[in-house]
Design brief:
By secondary structure, this protein is an alpha/beta fold. About 30% of the residues lie in helices and about 25% in strands. The strands form two sheets. It has a seven-stranded mixed sheet with strand order 5-4-3-6-7-9-8, with helices on both faces. Strands 1-2 form a two-stranded antiparallel sheet. Helix 4 links the parallel strand 4 and strand 5.
Length: about 230
């Protein structure tokens, strides 16, 4: 299945089942129904094993790193990170159904992992500078399939920037290639300075044969201070 976004083709397949039409813009109602229908854990884009080599340089072996997994769904990414020793992980999703499913799944084996229901555009339960690392695995792809993309992304990036530390990182893991995605990281939408890391796709679900990690850092002003977000 594919979605046309602002004149570009975004290949966005479902990880385990194909619906006739997805309605991401329906918010929690859509996702709650979806996770009730398909509770089995599944990973969009790629599993952690396929991403580990590309992502590990950004973790720098800091096991105390405070990590926020945005739009976690029922991905096994956080479980893999926790099992490697990264125990300070907060998983966030708009669906209360999947948050409860994953909380129950991990309650005994991974008691330190946190699960919170929240909208990525309004994470009011987190104070400024709460996290060292933000991870988005295909959440940004689903946002691009909604209406009002510039306003939506501006609000999303603003929250990501707010809750990450001044020296923090945001990793956006996507199906979308740079010629389509980089325009969404424009200065009009975000203060993040982005570099691209390519990852070889391990399945045929990628139209390009690759996946892409957009590594975002807070851009600095002339004084070396993090540049503030300027809304549209």
């Amino acid at each position: 299945r594919s979605h046309f976004v602002s004149g570009s083709l975004l290949w966005l397949p479902s990880p385990t089942f194909m619906a006739e039409e997805d309605h991401y813009d329906e918010g929690p109602e859509y996702w709650n129904k979806r996770y009730l229908k398909e509770p089995k854990p599944a990973d969009w884009v790629a599993k952690y094993d396929a991403l580990r080599e590309a992502l590990s340089p950004f973790f720098v072996g800091n096991l105390d790193m405070r990590i926020c997994h945005l739009g976690c769904g029922n991905s096994l990414l956080a479980e893999a990170l926790y099992d490697e020793g990264y125990h300070n992980i907060v998983n966030v999703d708009i669906s209360e159904v999947v948050i409860e499913q994953m909380r129950v799944r991990n309650a005994e084996q991974r008691p330190g992992m946190e699960w919170q229901v929240a909208d990525c555009k309004s994470m009011s339960s987190f104070e400024d500078g709460r996290f060292d690392l933000m991870i988005d695995k295909a959440l940004i792809d689903t946002l691009l399939c909604e209406d009002n993309v510039p306003d939506l992304l501006s609000a999303y990036f603003k929250e990501v920037e707010r809750v990450m530390t001044a020296d923090g990182l945001a990793l956006f893991i996507s199906f979308g290639p740079p010629d389509m995605m980089l325009k969404y990281f424009s200065p009009e939408l975000t203060t993040l300075a982005v570099e691209v890391v390519e990852v070889k796709a391990t399945s045929t679900k990628s139209a390009t044969g690759k996946h892409f990690v957009y590594v975002g850092r807070r851009a600095k002003n002339a004084k070396g201070e993090p540049r503030r977000h300027s809304p549209l």
